[in-house]
Amino acid sequence: MGSRSRRSGRELHDEAMDVDEDEFTSEHKLMLQYFLHERMATKVELVNIHKELFENRADLKDVLTTITSKINPLKMDIKETKCDLTGETYFVLIHTTGESFFPRCCVFTKPQLDFLKQVLTGIVLSSDGAVGTIPAINSCKTLTKSEAGDTIEKFVKEKILMETAGHGLCLTPLAVLEFEPFFKACFSGNLLVCDLCKQLVFIGKACDGCEQRFHLHCVDKWMKSKKTVCPSCAQHWP
Question: What CATH number has the domain spanning 192-237?
């Protein structure tokens, strides 16, 4: 049997968009355009956008299912996740190329990309899921300090990093999901998984007894169920 020819990006695009207009309406396309531009939205933001576009004509879950079925052939997906820092629910559009590093590397120069790898490494290896902005700039070996500062602003603008007064530079919900192949390829022995939701955790609560780390929002949910012991080692939590 002859080998199957590889389809072009144009063919994949046509396949994704060749759908019944009654199913994939202009409202679906507008929501997709929003995701392509913004890359992520809080649940509150998305509910408001859905209400404005669809009113009561379609359930949000069904709308997202329809959109993802069209973009999956283009190696994209929309995922629901929670922010490590705030616990807020987000919906994010990610690339699913299977590559071990950032799929949007064309956005950055080689020195900027090397700096990004450096910052990501610092975050993964840190004890609190964050790195300080000034230490990151001072330790940059591929850019001047001024260029490094401007590049961090670009990382924030591209929604890879968020900068907070209490934590410094940490990962956005988008970055946690989209960088997962890179993290697993390069830091498999350093990654922590929340024992409650079984997802990667960078910022969270560590048990004093077993040192297992949990998402703050997972701990809150656990404690609200009136459970006051560690889910992993059963040590009492005050």
Answer: 3.30.40.10
